[in-house]
Amino acid sequence: MQIDIISIFPDFFRGPLDHGIIRRAREAGLVKMETRDLRVHTCDRHRTVDDRPFGGGEGMVLKPEPLFECVESLHLAPREGRFAAKQSVILLSAQGKRFDQAMAAELVTLERIVLICGRYEGVDERVGTHLADREISIGDYVLSGGELGAAVIIDTVTRLIPGALGNEASARQESFHAGAEVGNGDGPDSTCASGGLLDYPHYTRPAEFRGIRVPEVLVNGNHEDIRRWRRRSALEKTFRNRPDLLEQARLSDEDKEVLAEIRASSSWPLGY
Ligand code: SAM
Fold first, then answer.
1. Residue 130: closest CA among 71, 43, 59
2. How far apart (Å, rounded) are the C-alpha atoms in residues 121 and 117?
3. 193 in helix, strand or coil?
4. Nearest CA among 115, 231, 251 for reference residue 180
5. Is the Cα torsion angle 218, 234, 98, 133 positive or negative in sign?
6. What separation in angstroms does the CA of 197 have from each of 39, 162, 200, 248, 255?
7. d(Cα 27, Cα 33) in Å, to the nearest integer?
8. What band does 171 get if pLDDT is binned at 50, 70 and 90?
9. Which of 142, 148, 155 maximizes ligand 1 atoms within 8 Å of its Cβ, making it the mutation to test the pocket?
10. Of these four, 43, 188, 190, 269, which has the most CB atoms within 10 Å of its CB?
11. With the C-alpha atoms ordered 142, 146, 151, 153, is the resulting torsion angle positive or negative?
12. CB neighbours (10 Å) of residue 156?
């Protein structure tokens, strides 16, 4: 996979792309990342990338010419053939479709992703309608620029590249993972796929810290008890913090029974 990032602040990515899993994935040749300085694709002395909005109003807008020229310099497939070529040009935008784990799982199947980072009041709309294939938002809030959003997408997608995580099972059991392996009794090391639930709580040594003990079940060595405790904890946490996820989660019959018990015994006001 290759990921190109188009930004007026290419140095912004020095930190986010140079640590941990992303750095290792790059060094192992699993993913290539290139930052592209938008100002390289300007023709005036001041390297102008923005202009005032037609119709008046606040702020400045990123001009279309440098963005079109920058994307064209990457020699991608023509727009109508990009899907077949496993390429996607993505405009980061608060008005885009909301990014989630399912979208990351779709993006990781592509061979090339180009991320366009907006700034100021945003980007000339013709970039969205005639250059990009899709607009993605990382959440319902407004950032100052698309760079943080691009970093979020890159991090999420990169850890899904086969081989990027040391232990592939850890991606299966993480929050939001909607794989088909629910409750398959993988054993306590990998537990089971989250099936779209939030992850279960994790603890490490010491077993007692400032008088707070880890749950006894985790140290007694009974794998089946551990599996059941983890699954119940994941259901409880999802019920408490993200009940909306339960509607789409892949639940076994055992899960449904446990969830009914949790609901019946719950004294948490929802959303609190
Ligand atoms: N006027 C725009 C609006 O109200 O939708 C906000 C522009 S924002 C200040 C500048 C840039 O930040 C956008 O062009 C986009 O690239 C990026 N951005 C802001 N919020 C974002 C979000 N939630 N997800 C992804 N990118 C975002």
1. 71
2. 12
3. coil
4. 251
5. positive
6. 43, 22, 9, 9, 11
7. 11
8. confident
9. 142
10. 188
11. positive
12. 19
In single-letter form, the type of residue at position 80 comes to E
What three-state secondary structure class fits 85? coil
Ligand 1, residues at Cβ distance < 6 Å: 92-95, 117-119, 121-123, 137-139, 141-146, 149
Tokens of 156: 């999420």
pLDDT for res 174:
86
User: In the beta sheet, which residues pair with residue 250?
Assistant: none
**Per-residue pLDDT at 231:** 97
Backbone angles phi, psi at 48, to 5 degrees: -75, 125
Measured in degrees and rounded to the nearest 5, phi and psi for residue 58 equal -75, 155
* Single pTM value for the model: 0.92
DSSP 58: S
- Residue in the block written with tokens 């979208």: 103
Q: How confident is the model at residue 269 (pLDDT cuts 50, 70, 90)?
A: low
CA of 175 to the centre of ligand 1 (A): 26
Smallest CA-to-CA distance from 271 within 247, 234, 248, 243 is with: 243
DSSP reduced 3-state for 138: coil
Cα separation of the two ends of the chain = 42
Instruction: Supply 5's token pair.
Output: 């990032």
Distance 101 CA to ligand 1 centre (A): 20
CA–centroid distance, residue 34 to ligand 1 (Å)? 22
Q: Considering Cα of 166, then 170, then 171, then 174, what sign does the dihedral take?
A: negative
